[in-house]
Amino acid sequence: MLNHISIGVKDIVRTKKFYDAALKPLGYTLKSDGETSLGYGDKAVALWISKSERPVPADTQSGLHVCFDAGSRKAVDEFHKAALATGGKDNGRPGLRADYGPNYYAAFVVDPDGYRLEAYCGA
Fold first, then answer.
1. Could you report the per-residue pLDDT of 51-84, keeping only the tens digit for each?
2. Torsion over CA of 48, 31, 12 and 119, rounded to 10 degrees?
3. Whole-angstrom Cα distance, residue 49 to residue 117?
């Protein structure tokens, strides 16, 4: 249903370091690299990140988060570890979420700009 999502950030250099590391274990790479924008995906860009003077303020009560597919539970674990190592904050350690489903394995982080992210594997 979705082709891509775009978010705005203040510091594109810091953001690139974070997303390069966090998305690598999930198989997503930088497909477009500009001075003011970044594009990540597997075959095509699905996440656009642009430098913005007025990014959406972080709001933990908004319910907004972005969930990335992961190919394995190990990839979910590595996503979480890489995100924390590059400035992200823990928002839910890797593990089964039985209330979401019997095989719902996920980890949750908050990126340096306050965006809530999830990596999910259903196997």
1. 998 888 888 888 889 999 999 999 999 999 999 9
2. 70
3. 14
Q: CATH code for 5-52+64-121?
A: 3.10.180.10
Query: Cα–Cα distances in Å, from 52 out to 6, 56, 104, 115?
Result: 11, 9, 34, 14
48: Cβ contacts below 8 Å, ≥ 6 apart:
4, 5, 6, 7, 32, 37, 38, 39
For the chain, give the longest Cα–Cα distance: 43
Query: What's the whole-number average pLDDT of the chain?
Result: 95
| pLDDT tens sequence across 20-36 | 999 999 999 999 999 99
Q: What is the pTM of this model?
A: 0.94
Residue-range domain boundaries for the chain: 5-52+64-121
* Local structure of 110: helix, strand or coil: strand
DSSP string, 25-56: GGT-EEEEE-SSEEEEESSSEEEEEEE-SSPP
Any idea which residue has 């001075």 for tokens? 35
